[in-house]
């Protein structure tokens, strides 16, 4: 494999799993080959782990770290903490005096690995600059939230196929989707009701083709929204879905978990379905799906499944043994009675 | 059968037509109550009535099975208010220990002891700790004891100059004597488990006050040579009744009492006769072996008290006329400089005896083996016939078992597995489960040779879920070779009977909380946007509740979630030739309200997602050896320096819930909203001594009250959840 391709493959691997120590060490060699001081920093980091009390290694690490910081200082990272905006109708609660979640940048060995930010115009501009920054080569995780989103309970919206609530500013999402997001392995749009248009926009964003994990918790997408996203070509590589509190049921799950002969989607690794009206029908879709055989994690509440649903999972031969037997244990003795109020 | 004119359970045609599960609730209750009443009528008639009547009752009961919600549970035993297919053995318990709903349905065995209730238990659930029913009678006896008792010596017994036994007469207030006499009328007698070696009936009761009164009398009456080191009388009494014609109690040695922690041991047996009588010929009323010649007591009067060394074999025959009723207990002494040597051979004998006794419920042919080993162990304790005690029995019984595909052979002390069947840790876990007869939920596909299990709705016990075959080996045979041949065809299990208690289990049980939304101050101000799953205080309590549950799960070497069993491999440590089973004993302390203008509280939003059983086990090390393809484990639960502890521990796993308008409408008053997880966790901690409700606690524990108990009556729970706040402030 040509060196450049090899380096690209390593970078992709680290964007997917930034905790893979072995890949970091191989990548360090690639960085050293091209004179990037971060390669030596990575190597010294691992030597320090092996010999934490060695003063020579510690000194060498500190010296190399200073070199890397000096190099990075030549081109500072863009500033993300811009003002937030609150807009909406007259009956919107005024959030103007509440704090917004701070920007979070995870950095390691001189690389930005993940970014969590509010979806504001200033931050979108900063993100665009960051994507072009050499420190963001390994930026694999992006978490966004819209500070102007209304935090209303999905039940209040009573949404269905015809109408989905929308709180996320569509124009901002559109700006995001126009960026080159090909390096992203994980995207989270948290606690922001998306709406049909935003769902469609995400589904059409081809630069998300390398995405492995999509976190849309509390996004009020419903079955219709999940249908749209689960069948999108641009998202066919996603094997890790976080779908808490989305009013997803059997219909949406069929779109996500059903597989036809020409289905090119990868088997699922992780699936979070907490706080969704799954019911026994949804459990049956999970139990019968060929895409669940390699699940490492399945999160659901037994109350959302009901006794019959929990039993269905407990007997699902498609599920990995550990997950199946856990649900077999949960299923025992479940009664349909609700919790005491 | 839903016929409103359901015939009586005593109708011979009843059992054939009964489809108990299909009956409406009121008829199920009627059938159960009639069964109960019929059972006790037969008891009153003596030994549960004629064989024909007993058979008819059992036939009806065999068609009756209760749902888990209709059962109670004490000491790990499921309880029914009447006989069922499984619950066949009567037990007497404190009424107050029963669930309220069950109390009115349970018979009261004795008007004189209204605090006692009769329940029915499943003998297949017995573990070594629940084998015997020790009835608390102190409340009945203490008020009657009155003035101090006195033991007046009647005479020494035995031919030798140094007496081998003493006969006393008990003098006590009339009320005390009457109360002791009434013990015979309480209706508590049951046939003993070792009915193969003795006749009559007995019950076991506990009375600290009676023991204390007799202790004082003994202090004044014991000869000096016998009194040195005497501390007290064992408060556990056996009340025995033999009727004329009953089989005698064959020659035996009493099992001694030994407490290594207190350095106490029993030395003398005390027999207190509550009725007088005589045996003119044949076996004597009491026959005690003595080196100087047998001691025979033929005539005894009411309240005669016989004292003799506990290492003496003895036997007893019924009176020629009238019931022979007597209490038996023992005198406890402090070890003074003596060294009590642990003899592995004796421990093994006793372990086997206990195990085979329990297994005899499934395989009655094992009862004689159990009785023989009890007696040998007791004799061996005293060094009696030491040469005989060291010799092997002519045959050694073993049980070849199969649990969910895993085969093993055991005699209750030795466990044999093949290496290919399971890992060493799994073998140890299965051996523990078998020895403890742990409660295990049957899977639908569990098969046993017990028809009654069927599709049982309730909990099962480990031994009940095992297929078994009893076989014997010659006493001189080295068992390893024979057992290896027997297990040679044992296949590796298609699925492991136990799963590891690792992240695959813990990860889905403890998902991380959602990100708090800082703008959510309280339900009142933020309704309808209020979301408990994103409120910082609710999340804080949720994470603390997770820590509570996680500590207990992590501290348990074995877990049960429904029918699934989990093994924490890290808690089974192999060192040399021993497997150590580690349990957490110490709970390390772990690690706030601004605006809350609402009548709900954070605990109202923490529900229980599911409950695991994480029994707290304290076990001695398990010795093991590898013999070719065989793995041999030795479990000595009665070793000197160890006392087995196994305490059930349900662990509620939390989740955050939201409350909707309908929830408030259902209760009317928001202060009546439940706090499901806190209540479940409080039950987990019940029995522990709550800490004083001092120090910082969350604001909601004190809102509107000076007492912690307003929201959570368990101060211990709050201390554990918020102990880090207390430490921060102190």
From TrEMBL, chain A:
<dbReference type="InterPro" id="IPR001611">
    <property type="entry name" value="Leu-rich_rpt"/>
</dbReference>
<protein>
    <submittedName>
        <fullName>Uncharacterized protein</fullName>
    </submittedName>
</protein>
<dbReference type="InterPro" id="IPR032675">
    <property type="entry name" value="LRR_dom_sf"/>
</dbReference>
<dbReference type="Pfam" id="PF13516">
    <property type="entry name" value="LRR_6"/>
</dbReference>
Automatic annotation (TrEMBL), chain B:
<protein>
    <recommendedName>
        <fullName>Fe2OG dioxygenase domain-containing protein</fullName>
    </recommendedName>
</protein>
């Amino acid at each position: 494999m040509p060196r450049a391709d090899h380096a690209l493959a390593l970078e992709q691997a680290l964007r997917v799993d930034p905790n893979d120590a072995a890949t970091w060490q191989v990548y360090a060699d690639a960085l050293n080959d091209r004179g990037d001081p971060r390669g030596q920093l990575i190597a010294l980091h691992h030597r320090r782990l092996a010999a934490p009390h060695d003063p020579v290694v510690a000194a060498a690490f500190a010296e190399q770290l200073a070199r890397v910081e000096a190099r990075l200082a030549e081109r500072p990272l863009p500033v993300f903490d811009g003002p937030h905006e609150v807009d909406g109708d007259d009956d919107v609660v005024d959030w103007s005096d509440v704090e917004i979640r701070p920007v979070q940048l995870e950095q390691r060995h001189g690389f930005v690995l993940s970014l969590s930010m509010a979806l504001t115009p200033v931050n979108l501009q900063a993100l665009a600059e960051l994507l072009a920054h050499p420190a963001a080569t390994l930026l694999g995780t992006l978490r966004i939230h819209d500070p102007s989103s209304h935090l209303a309970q999905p039940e209040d919206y009573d949404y269905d196929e015809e109408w989905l609530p929308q709180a996320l500013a569509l124009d901002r999402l559109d700006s995001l989707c126009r960026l080159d997001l090909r390096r992203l392995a994980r995207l989270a749009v948290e606690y922001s009701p998306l709406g049909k248009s935003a769902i469609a926009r995400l589904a059409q964003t081809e630069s998300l083709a390398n995405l492995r994990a999509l976190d849309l918790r509390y996004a009020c997408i419903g079955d219709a929204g999940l249908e749209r996203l689960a069948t999108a070509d641009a998202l066919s590589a996603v094997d890790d879905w976080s779908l808490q509190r989305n009013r997803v049921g059997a219909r949406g799950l069929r779109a996500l978990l059903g597989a036809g002969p020409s289905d090119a989607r990868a088997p699922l690794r992780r699936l979070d379905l907490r706080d969704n009206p799954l019911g026994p029908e949804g459990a049956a879709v999970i139990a019968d799906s060929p895409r669940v055989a390699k699940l490492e994690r399945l999160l659901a509440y037994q109350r959302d499944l009901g006794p019959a649903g929990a039993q269905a999972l407990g007997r699902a031969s498609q599920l990995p043994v550990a997950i199946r037997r856990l649900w077999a244990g949960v299923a025992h003795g479940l009664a349909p009675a609700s919790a005491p109020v | 059968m839903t016929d409103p004119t359901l015939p009586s359970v005593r109708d011979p045609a009843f059992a054939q037509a009964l489809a108990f599960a299909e009956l409406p609730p009121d008829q199920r209750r009627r059938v159960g109550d009639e069964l109960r009443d019929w059972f006790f009528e037969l008891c009153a008639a003596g030994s549960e009535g004629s064989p024909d009547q007993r058979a008819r009752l059992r036939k009806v009961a065999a068609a009756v099975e209760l749902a888990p919600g209709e059962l109670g549970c004490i000491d790990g035993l499921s309880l029914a208010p009447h006989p069922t297919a499984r619950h066949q053995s009567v037990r007497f318990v404190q009424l107050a220990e029963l669930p309220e709903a069950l109390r009115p349905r349970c018979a009261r065995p004795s008007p004189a002891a209204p605090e006692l209730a009769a329940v029915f238990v499943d003998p297949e659930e017995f573990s070594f700790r629940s084998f015997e029913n020790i009835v608390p009678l102190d409340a009945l006896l203490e008020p009657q004891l009155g003035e101090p008792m006195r033991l007046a010596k009647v005479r020494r017994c035995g031919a030798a100059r140094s007496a081998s036994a003493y006969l006393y007469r008990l003098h006590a207030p009339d009320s005390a004597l009457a109360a002791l006499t009434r013990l015979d009328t309480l209706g508590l007698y049951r046939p003993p488990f070792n009915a193969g070696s003795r006749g009559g009936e007995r019950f076991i009761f506990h009375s600290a006050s009676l023991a204390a009164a007799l202790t004082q009398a003994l202090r004044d009456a014991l000869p000096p040579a016998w009194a040195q080191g005497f501390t007290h009388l064992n408060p556990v009494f056996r009340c025995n009744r033999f009727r004329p014609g009953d089989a005698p109690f064959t020659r035996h040695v009493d099992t001694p009492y030994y407490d290594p922690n207190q350095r106490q041991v029993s030395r003398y047996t005390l027999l207190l006769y509550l009725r007088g009588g005589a045996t003119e010929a044949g076996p004597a009323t009491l026959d005690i072996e003595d080196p100087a010649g047998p001691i025979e007591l033929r005539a005894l009067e009411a309240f005669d008290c016989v004292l003799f060394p506990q290492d003496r074999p003895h036997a007893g025959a019924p009176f020629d006329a009238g019931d022979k009723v007597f209490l038996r207990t023992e005198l406890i002494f402090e070890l003074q400089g003596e060294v009590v040597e642990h003899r592995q051979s004796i421990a093994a004998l006793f372990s086997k005896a206990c195990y085979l006794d329990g297994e005899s419920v499934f395989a009655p042919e094992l009862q004689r083996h159990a009785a023989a080993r009890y007696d040998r162990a007791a004799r061996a304790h005293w060094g009696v016939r030491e040469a005989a005690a060291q010799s092997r029995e002519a045959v050694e019984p073993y049980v070849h078992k199969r649990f969910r595909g895993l085969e093993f052979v055991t005699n209750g002390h030795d466990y044999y597995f093949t290496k290919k069947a399971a890992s060493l840790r799994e073998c140890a876990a299965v051996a523990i489960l078998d020895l403890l007869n742990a409660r295990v939920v049957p899977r639908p596909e569990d098969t046993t040779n017990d028809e009654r299990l069927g599709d049982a709705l309730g909990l099962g016990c480990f031994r009940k879920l095992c297929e078994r075959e009893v076989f014997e080996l010659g006493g001189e045979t080295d068992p390893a070779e024979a057992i290896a041949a027997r297990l040679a065809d044992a296949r590796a299990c298609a699925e492991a009977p136990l799963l590891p208690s690792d992240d695959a289990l813990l990860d889905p049980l403890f998902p991380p909380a959602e990100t708090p939304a800082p703008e959510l101050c309280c339900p009142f101000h933020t309704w309808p946007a209020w979301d408990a799953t994103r409120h910082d205080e609710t999340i804080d309590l949720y994470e603390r509740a997770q820590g509570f549950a996680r500590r207990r799960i992590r501290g348990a070497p074995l877990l049960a979630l429904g029918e699934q069993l989990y093994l924490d491999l890290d808690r089974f440590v192999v060192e040399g030739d021993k497997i150590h089973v580690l349990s957490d004993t110490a709970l390390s302390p772990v690690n706030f309200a601004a605006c809350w203008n609402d009548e709900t509280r954070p605990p109202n939003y923490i529900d229980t997602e599911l409950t695991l059983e994480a029994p707290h086990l304290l076990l001695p090390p398990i010795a093991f050896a590898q013999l070719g393809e065989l793995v041999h484990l030795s479990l000595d639960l009665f070793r000197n320096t160890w006392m087995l502890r196994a305490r059930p521990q349900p662990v509620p796993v939390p989740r955050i819930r939201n409350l909707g308008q309908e929830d408030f409408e259902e209760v009317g008053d928001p202060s009546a909203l439940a706090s499901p997880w806190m209540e479940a966790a409080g039950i987990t901690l019940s029995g522990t001594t709550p800490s004083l409700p001092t120090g910082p606690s969350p604001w909601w524990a004190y809102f509107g009250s000076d007492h912690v108990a307003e929201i959570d009556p368990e101060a211990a729970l709050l201390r554990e959840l918020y102990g880090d706040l207390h430490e921060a402030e102190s």
